[in-house]
Amino acid sequence: MTDNKDELDRIEGGAPLDAPRIVRGQGVTAPLGFRAAGLAAGIKKSGKQDLALVFNEGPEYAAAGVFTRNQVKAAPVLWSKQVLTTGRLRAVILNSGGANACTGPGGFQDAHQTAEAVAETLSNWGTETGAVEVAVCSTGLIGDRLPMDKVLNGVTEIVHEMGGGLSGGTDAAHAIMTTDTVPKQVALHHPQGWNVGGMGKGAGMMAPSLATMLVVLTTDAVASAGQLDTALRNAAGKTFDRLDIDGSTSTNDTVLLLSSGASGIPVDQADLDAAVYAVCDDLAAQMQADAEGVTKRVVITVTGAVTEDDAVTVARAVARDSLVKTAMFGSDPNWGRVLAAVGISPVTVNPDIISVSFNGQAVCRNGYGAEGARDVDLSGTDIDVIVDLGLGDATGWVRTTDLSHAYVEENSAYSS
Amino acid sequence: MTDNKDELDRIEGGAPLDAPRIVRGQGVTAPLGFRAAGLAAGIKKSGKQDLALVFNEGPEYAAAGVFTRNQVKAAPVLWSKQVLTTGRLRAVILNSGGANACTGPGGFQDAHQTAEAVAETLSNWGTETGAVEVAVCSTGLIGDRLPMDKVLNGVTEIVHEMGGGLSGGTDAAHAIMTTDTVPKQVALHHPQGWNVGGMGKGAGMMAPSLATMLVVLTTDAVASAGQLDTALRNAAGKTFDRLDIDGSTSTNDTVLLLSSGASGIPVDQADLDAAVYAVCDDLAAQMQADAEGVTKRVVITVTGAVTEDDAVTVARAVARDSLVKTAMFGSDPNWGRVLAAVGISPVTVNPDIISVSFNGQAVCRNGYGAEGARDVDLSGTDIDVIVDLGLGDATGWVRTTDLSHAYVEENSAYSS
To answer: Which positions 330-359 of B are in contact with A (Cβ < 8 Å)?
Structure first.
């Protein structure tokens, strides 16, 4: 179901007719040439939806992906990295209810067998497909084998259930949820006549929560695998890679971008970069807002760094600091904890020229307290922290959340 | 007051007469030649004790120190590092109720003025002392200037209150507490006739909680500043530096070791190393047991590493992982989170040969789940995690705690 109110708000908000339009509530089936489905295959004990399929009808099949940097990689990550070396995908099968990580050679065989089953069913359905054209993504508890009988029955069923239109995409977005409380979808309609859509679950990538981040992006623009790869790496580096909920990095994080070329419209790299970035940025914001136990949305921006990498490194050190995050939960303008976190980051700083503001109000100037610093009101949901290192011209940011009782509650009772 | 029961238990426990005896409840005044005091100077709004003095009566005054690695260093750290370049100290003045960190040039003048006041009062009291012989330590909220009128009045009073015997040391141990719930003291009596005593507060060093760690150690052995420095660096590196409560590092962490030489007994480096290590190890265990919000005492041991540094690095990555720590709080044997934390550490590992045990029971063998892994009972207070990387012969460990509701509660309402 489209979230029509949100869509109308955005349209009525009055973007110029020649600007790209962002629409929440539409997802991977917004671009032409994609079908999707989601259903309950019985992998989750709760009986909720747990299997999703995204299918590229073509006429083109270019694809790109980025994966977790964790050295411990789940079986589906190993499988999908391997098949993506061809730069080509026809389908992505995703399950929640089990990560298929740390499951040994048997787990890898399960991922392979799942891809084979998708390929065989699609072929029987009339679309000749090989297993090497099928990416596999999983999310859930680490360490258990998947119930393959249920997965394989689900695969047969889901291929037949694939609908066109938006509802299939929304079903898929629901089926990949674990601790997410809402599905996450967004689409971008470009005035040139091509589109990008995406769905995601979880809260992170590379630096983020163990609540695996899975994202599938689709476009009907005509674009090569190389173009997709460039656009995806640029966008992921500035969005998902800068979303840091608790510093933990999943064994399963995966972001895929598939192109059907169905619009028939070739796309400039710059236009594609901007569109993919916009979709990823919106999905990252949706993940931040729905992170485990979140009560505050916090953006840490570091200015005055020598390089952008330095700025992001310092911002990440602040974003990961448990004492900063608990202070945010308490709406406490405890800026000294921000300085302490900056000071232990691997970037060389000069404490005597650091300035900090909370929600636009100075709390620290040149290394010591600004007047009224203890009275800054942080009771709202959004907190902007700006740290000026005073060393150079580079800027970087990281999105994070507070560390709340709900986070502890949710994560102390996950597997049991 | 001496904790006589504890002392008697240990003595009756029957250490051989020629082995060093460890006695809890005795502290910095256990060695000959040291006096100490603690009192309420009015720095803390609560009216609790907040000022402590440790005084070396000589005849020798050798000293060594290790300090926070945070680039943002509190004024008293800057002062004490400077005076310790002489390798000589007559006194240490410590306050709780304010960190005197991020307080600018005025804050440094406050630390200097405090040392001057201690020196002047000691000189008037009959012991000629210079400010460069006085170290200063502070702990409390970052960012506010100290109430210097109260500090200076307190300094005059505390010099006159210095008593001999154990009670002065215990008063001092009380006066440096912030979020500590119990004072932390220990003494070692060496059969050769010399002694080491120590007191500490907080929960960490270099890698540890922002709840500043302050430790003062004393000995009446005859030892040079160089000997003290060697013993202190060796001990701190294996004890306080391996205590990691939340990965945050205070601006104020300080560990000092003072020798009076009052026993008249010269000491071998190896004996001194062992004694200082034993005292530091006991204080570190006391800090772990009293860490903010602790409900579990967790030791992460990494074996089979190529180097000891690698082992400690991996152990620290696991010890800092919020998802591992919340699982421990929930008594949940979620070993997959341990593997994910190992996999994102900067040490290169081979996931397929990693094995993990919880409290001696195998939960993961060669990268995947051992039978019964989900049923391991972690309901007790102590949890031993052993991670075998299978790469080499080196071992390292880190002490940590769980991440509990109480931690969030305590740290979300500290400055306000």
So the answer is: 330-337, 339-344, 348-349, 351-352, 354
Nearest-angstrom CA–CA distance, B377 and B63: 47
Q: pLDDT of B278-337, one tens digit each?
A: 999 999 888 888 877 788 889 999 999 999 999 999 999 998 888 888 888 888 898 988
Spatial separation of the C-alpha atoms in residues A77 and A362, rounded to whole Å: 45
* Selected catalytic residue, list A139, A212, A251, A401: A212
CA distances from A328 to A88, A113, A230, B410 (A): 44, 46, 36, 13
- Going by the annotation, the residues of the binding site of B for substrate are 178, 201, 212, 292, 411, 416
**Same domain for B240 and B309?**
no
Beta-bridge mates of residue B130? none
Do A251 and A335 have their domain in common?
Answer: no
Residue A389: partners with Cβ closer than 8 Å, 6 or more residues away: A302, A303, A304, A305, A310, A311, A314, A342, A347, A349, A350, A353, A354
Token pair recorded at residue B407: 């931690």
Evaluate whether A288 touches A401 at the Cβ level (below 8 Å). Answer: yes
The Cα B289–Cα B186 span in angstroms is: 15
Q: Which residues of chain B have pLDDT under 70?
A: 1-17, 163-166, 203-211, 246-247, 413-416
CA B148 from centre of chain: 27
| Torsion-angle region of B264 (φ positive above 0: left; ψ -120 to 50: alpha; else: beta) | left
Residues of A in contact with B326 (CB under 8 A): 407-408, 411-412
Distance (Å) of CA B50 to CA A138, B198, B229, B265: 55, 18, 28, 35
Strand order in the sheet with B91-95: B34-39, B51-56, B91-95, B134-138
Which two tokens mark B11?
A: 């003595």
Q: Is the dihedral of CA B407, B233, B68, A244 positive or negative?
A: negative
Is B102 within 8 Å of A348 when comparing Cβ atoms? no
Nearest by CB to residue B343, choosing from A70, A349, A413, is A70
The amino acid sitting at A249 is T
Give the residue numbers spanning the domain of B304.
Answer: 297-411
Show the low-confidence residues of chain A (pLDDT under 50).
1-15, 204-210, 414-416
- Interchain proximity A408–B405, CB inside 8 Å: yes
Instruction: Please give the Cα distance from A315 to A301 (Å, whole number).
Output: 6
**In chain B, positions 152-211, which contact chain A (CB-CB < 8 Å)?**
209-210
Among B289, B314, B341, give the residue marking a domain's end: B289
* Domain end residue (candidates: A259, A289, A319): A289
Cα A71 to Cα A65: distance, rounded to the nearest angstrom: 17
Q: B367 and A336 in contact by Cβ < 8 A?
A: no
Supply the DSSP symbol for B158: H
Domain count, chain B: 2
Decide if the complex's ipTM is over 0.90.
no
Residue A416: inside a domain, yes or no? no
| β-pair partners for B369 | B364
- To the query of whether residue A179 is one of the catalytic residues in this protein, the response is no
CATH at A360: 3.10.20.340
Which secondary-structure segment (H or E) carries A356? Answer: strand A355-358
- What is the nearest CA distance from B176 to chain A, expressed in angstroms? 20
Shortest distance between the Cα of A306 and any Cα of chain B, in A, equals: 17
| Whether residues B277 and B338 fall in one domain | no
Residue A36: phi and psi, rounded to 5, are -155, 165
